[in-house]
Each structure stands twice: as C-alpha cells, then as structure tokens.
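Write out the 3D structure for:
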Amino acid sequence: MQPVATLLLRAMIAVLIALLIFVQVVMIPGVADETARRNPDLAYLEVPGIIGAVLFLALVQIVLVCVFALLSLVRADRIFSPHSFRWVDIIIGTMLAAAALLVASFIVLAKDGAVNPSILVLAVFGVVVSLSLALLVGVMRGLLRKALQLEQDLSEVV
C-alpha cells in the first residue's frame, strides 16, 4: 500500500501546486482589482495585497515541494537519512515565515484602517496555525532524529 499511497500523494501535491499557481496568476490579481474598484479609498493597498497573497501562497508551495521530496525519500526507502533534515528544516522555516508575513500584513492593514473583526480573527487564526504546524514539524523532526539514531545503532549491532 505504501508505494501506491506515496505515488497518489505526490500526484495530489503536483495538482495542488498547479492550482496554487493558477490562483497566484489569475485569481489574486482579479480579486485585488475588483476590491480596489469597490473601495477606491483603499486602492493603494492593491499591489501590496497582491504581493502579500502571492508570497503567502509561494510559502505554501515551498512546503508542498518539501513534502513531495520527503515522500520521494520514503518511496526510495531513504527517509531515515541526514538528507531528510534539510527538507524538514525548510518546512519549519517556511511556517515561521508564513506567521511573520501574516503579522506584517495585519499591521499594514491595521495601520491603514482597513481592519474589521473578521480580518483580526483570520490573522490570529493564521498565525496560530502556522506556529502550531512549525512546532508539530519540530516534534516530528525530533522523532526522525531518534529513528535515524536507532536505525544506525541497529545496523552496528547486525
């Protein structure tokens, strides 16, 4: 089952990345343009909003690429190698960067008076999710380190 599952997951990740690119190229600029037309007093936030949204989705794409690489290592039965830690560290750094981007975006919106309670709730939710996922992946990194150590110890015994 594992080879089929990893293959399907990798295919789904490829589809997700393609969909995110579509959203970055087509949907975000369209929504930003429409929002700027409906709220001319906040139209100057259109370009920073596009940049922030595209950057946030790029961070999601980076995580997906890292997970894809880790699935490739699982498929090749090489997940318990020091090479895995690079991908896990990138995921943790990306999650922290996403939290920082959300905080910065909220500050810009609050400074310009474009914040309503739902935006505050979304920003707090996004920061909590990003930080929680970074901590979770950090715990999983520790488990990976322990599994690698146990595998190395076992290979020395045999």
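The radius of gyration is 20 Å.
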